[in-house]
Amino acid sequence: MTDEAGFDEEGSALLSRLRVIEDQPLETRAEHLAQVYEELRSVLESGDSRTSA
Fold first, then answer.
1. pLDDT single digits (tens) 4-41
2. Are the C-beta atoms of 35 and 20 separated by less than 8 Å?
3. How confident is the model at residue 2 (pLDDT cuts 50, 70, 90)?
4. What span, in angstroms and rounded, lies between the C-alpha atoms of 36 and 15?
5. DSSP states of 1-53
6. Which positions ≥6 away from 3 have C-beta within 8 Å?
7. What is the Cβ-side half-sphere exposure of residue 4, based on CA atoms within 13 angstroms?
8. What are the residues whose beta carbons fall under 8 Å from the beta carbon of 18, sequence distance 6 or more?
9. C-beta atoms surrounding 29 within 10 Å
């Protein structure tokens, strides 16, 4: 299901998570954004391996 902005539940959860991260001090923000980056990279890379098989 999508919301009025066109995001599904995962996208809305990600936006909420990013908003919380953006309100944190710079050092903490950098650490948490790096975690989000790694999680997204992992998801994208696993998607690539599924479609190329």
1. 556 688 888 999 999 999 999 999 999 999 999 999 99
2. no
3. low
4. 11
5. -B-TTS-BHHHHHHHHHHHHHHTS-HHHHHHHHHHHHHHHHHHHHHHHHHHH-
6. 12
7. 0
8. 36
9. 15
**Nearest 5°: CA angle at 15, between 10 and 16?**
95
Q: Name residue 8's beta-bridge partners.
A: 2
Contact (CB, 8 A) for 36 and 17 = yes
Q: CA–CA separation, 48 vs 53, rounded Å?
A: 9
- pLDDT of the residue at 10: 85
24: Cα separation from own chain's centroid: 17
